[in-house]
UniProtKB/TrEMBL annotation:
InterPro entries: GrpII_AminoAcid_Decarb, PyrdxlP-dep_de-COase, PyrdxlP-dep_Trfase, PyrdxlP-dep_Trfase_major, PyrdxlP-dep_Trfase_small
Identification of the protein by name: Aminotransferase class V-fold PLP-dependent enzyme
Source taxon at top rank: Bacteria
Keyword terms: Aminotransferase, Lyase, Pyridoxal phosphate, Transferase
Transmembrane segments: none
Keyword Transferase: yes
Tagged with keyword Lyase: yes
UniProt cross-references to Pfam families, sorted A to Z: Pyridoxal_deC
Family under the similarity heading: Belongs to the group II decarboxylase family. Sphingosine-1-phosphate lyase subfamily.
UniProt cofactor(s): pyridoxal 5'-phosphate
Any GO molecular function: transaminase activity
Species in which this protein is naturally found: Nocardioides plantarum
Length: 486
């Protein structure tokens, strides 16, 4: 890389959230181990051009994939019959779990539209799967403790009858950080001969070590009878570079519908175990290197560290007036809520002003708006600073008072129809919310404020369907060709 290109890349990266340092509490997972990151980075670079399309052409990739699946299987109490694949991330693992369940179901019920039953806290990746694969997502409200409601799940299963292809639980859920009652969910599924997927994308590589270091962990692995598949991301709590997750199935027969082969053209026979066809060996090698170099002892240590941080944040929050933990965390995710004296969105902005990224979560149905923290091992030494920042940010949010949406803007939003939202409507919304660039000569492009509380408060007023429509318009506006450097 020439110095010039490296400098330009660094300049581009300057506006990004920091990946290291333990102060970014969503999107990234930081072990704090610089030497592990370096080994993994080199592995990514060495295998960036290798192609997982054909395991016979790049046998190294097959070996690394089978090694990672074996490591995941050991961690998740899998029987000898287990098989698995490495995918590009949690969403792909979830997509494949749903696709496999759908295709198995269609094989025996060709005339029935398949459905899956999931708690309303399940990750949005399941909604994407429903959308892609024509499976109806039947959401069951969660109990007061944010966990799947078993009676409501049983009722939904009985009502849907033979339509159900899959039951889903999370270990833990992203939004509230609690583990669903997997033993009971899996039993409900098994009694009816239905597959049960545990989405442990975010907790799967840390909860087993939490149990090993003596923490109370609700059962959720293959040790639970009736669990047929589990997703666990390597690019989260295995602290691997971005781009890998593992999807495990209890038996090879359960995985079979996941495979795709096509000889229906004159080129090579396409043969895939995941959604991608050509896939870079980089992320796989990076994950292999990270898992090898951290090792069981390293993960136990990192798990002790991350839970020290979680416990200290939970305990410290009780001393911050106006802020509380929504549910005692089962894993490494914490959801915080505010009382009426302030709003969570302003707290997030105030945290950003103090160098901390915490993630706003909009209200949804019975679930209040909250602040999400994915805690990493690297956060532990900074917990006292984090708690000081949280206390200051909450006080500043209280001084500012709950963010108010202008009545005219609220009325404008209230009148928008998500099913017919046009570019003009979106422009009107941007103008009403003061989000249009006003630099002379500019083309009315987006001018996002550094403080997002008003935008989040506005979105919070909108229905989920309108949020989706507005944000799709937003992304459409963001993704436009710009001046490619000459
Ligand atoms: C529980 C759960 N499932 C699925 C996903 C999707 O993972 P990814 O963003 O890697 O696609 C996430 C991401 O946070 C998650 O927390």
């Amino acid at each position: 890389m020439t110095d010039d290109i490296a400098a330009r890349l660094r300049a581009l990266q300057a506006a990004d959230l920091p990946v290291h340092g333990g102060r970014t509490l969503a999107y990234v997972y930081d072990s704090g181990l610089a030497e592990v990151d370096e080994v993994a980075r080199r592995a990514v670079a060495s295998f960036a051009g290798s192609n997982g399309l054909d395991p016979t052409a790049f046998p190294s990739l097959l070996t690394m994939e089978n090694d990672l699946v074996a490591a995941a299987a050991r961690l998740l109490d899998a029987p000898d019959t287990v098989v698995g694949s490495v995918t590009s991330g949690g969403t792909e693992s979830v997509l494949l779990a749903v696709q496999g369940a759908r295709d198995a179901h269609l094989a025996t019920h060709p005339d029935v539209r398949p459905a899956m039953v999931l708690p309303d806290t399940a990750h949005a990746a399941f909604h994407k799967a429903a959308h892609y694969f024509g499976v109806e997502a039947v959401l069951v409200p969660t109990s007061a403790d944010f966990r799947a409601d078993l009676d409501a799940t049983a009722r939904a299963l009985d009502e849907l009858g033979e339509r159900v292809a899959l039951v889903v639980g999370s270990a833990p859920s992203y939004a509230h950080g609690v583990v669903d009652p997997i033993t009971d969910l899996a039993a409900l599924a098994a009694e009816r001969g239905i597959r049960c997927h545990v989405d442990a994308c975010i907790g799967g590589w840390v909860l087993p070590y939490a149990a090993r270091v003596g923490r109370e962990v609700p059962p959720w692995t293959f040790a639970v009878e009736g669990v047929t598949s589990i997703s666990v991301d390597l690019h989260k709590y295995a602290y691997a570079p971005k781009g890998t997750s593992v999807l495990l199935h209890r038996t090879a027969a359960l995985r079979r519908p996941q495979f795709f082969a096509s000889a229906a053209w004159p080129g090579y026979t396409m043969l895939n175990s995941t959604m991608q066809s050509t896939r870079s060996g980089g992320p796989l090698a990076g994950a292999w290197a990270a898992v090898q170099s951290i090792g069981d002892t390293g993960y136990e240590l990192l798990t002790r560290e991350v839970f020290e941080a979680v416990d200290a944040i939970v305990a410290g929050t009780t001393d911050i007036p106006g802020l509380h933990v929504v549910a005692p965390p089962d894993s490494t995710l914490i959801a915080l809520a505010t009382d009426d004296s302030c709003d969570p969105f302003t707290v997030c902005d105030e945290m950003a002003a103090r160098g901390w990224y915490v993630q706003p979560q909009l209200s949804h149905g019975a679930h209040p708006a909250t602040i999400h923290l994915s805690v990493s091992a690297a956060t532990r030494p900074h917990v006292p600073d984090l708690l000081t920042a949280l206390a200051e940010a909450t006080r500043a949010a209280q001084d500012a008072g709950p963010v108010a949406v202008d009545a005219g803007v609220a009325a404008y939003v209230g009148a928008l129809d998500p099913t017919t939202l046009t570019d003009d409507d979106f422009d009107g919304l941007l103008a009403a919310a003061g989000l249009v660039g006003d630099t002379p000569g500019d083309d009315g492009g987006l001018a996002l404020p550094t403080r997002m509380a008003e935008v989040n408060a506005l979105l919070d007023l909108a229905s989920p369907a309108l949020r989706e429509a507005v944000l799709v318009s937003f992304l459409d506006r963001l993704q436009r060709p710009t001046g490619w450097p000459a």
